[in-house]
Amino acid sequence: MIQVPEQTTRREVLYFLRWLPVIGSVILMVMVAFIATGTMAKLRSATYWREHTFQEILAAHSYEDNLINIQSGMRDFVTTGDADGLALCQRSIKLEPQLFDQLVDLTRDNPAQQERLKALSTAMKDVFAYDARLIDVYKAQGAEVVLNTEQTDEGRTTTDRALDILKEFSGEEEKLLDARDTAEQANYHNAEHQLILGSMLAAVLLLLANYMVSREMARRRRMETEREKLIAELQRTLAEVKTLSGLIPICAWCKNVRNDQGYWQTVELYVHSHSDANFSHSICPNCQEKFKDEIAKAAGGMENPTSRE
User: Fold this and answer.
1) Which of the chain's ends, N or C, has fewer CB atoms near its CB within 10 Å?
2) Domains in the chain: how many in total?
3) What is the DSSP string of 224-284?
4) In this structure, is residue 147 part of a structural domain?
5) Do 213 and 302 share a domain, yes or no?
6) Measured between alpha carbons, how far is 223 from 92 in angstroms, rounded to an integer?
7) What's the pTM value of the predicted model, to 2 decimals?
């Protein structure tokens, strides 16, 4: 079984820990971007539906204004014979299907409003039928008979029914507008808070990563300086050290050594020239016993120099 040295494992752990803040900040920024994208999508959706509801309210008001123009033009014509009133009534009647189709198209996502539009369609048929009958009465019998017919309040009741449906329709859309406006504001604030919080956390992690990387770089610079000092010290030591190596040719009888230039020299001189070693001459016990007579004679000669003369 192969065992990983503890020092190597510790170095790998430290290396991972140094880069952990950077990895965490990158992951956090990606998560913030992902969440922000989803929040912005919700915000765009809420904005779209708020604007859509506002268009529905405007369309309902346009339809209501057109209905009022129909009734106003019709009554001007049947009571005073105003031709302009009849023209206004006819233009408004032609415009009514277009405005009604617009309401139907805008409320396809809302079944309750679709039901109100069906009721409005029925009410408008009654309005158009009453108006047509009133115009026919005017043309056949004159304004006085029309006034008598109007006293029955049938026309007002028919028109009020359509207007009440339109008011209910607009009231529902205004409630939806308030709810969707609230949702839009909530999504906007959520997106703002998430972006701010995520950016702050990412900034903190990046600062921490920068601190750890700076500390690591300082440590490496110290180690590099120490390594350079050690290398310089080793180089100085190696420059001062001289060693002998290889085969040294030496005479078997006189013990002289042949140098690199081919000259023979004593062992002492050769070793001194190839190293920093020095010799201190002495005599070993064997040689002292072997040459004791010569040593004694040499010692006696040195003590009595005058006798030799």
Assistant:
1) N
2) 2
3) HHHHHHHHHHHHHHHHH-----S---B-TTT--EE-TTS-EE-HHHHHHHHSS--------
4) yes
5) no
6) 91
7) 0.56
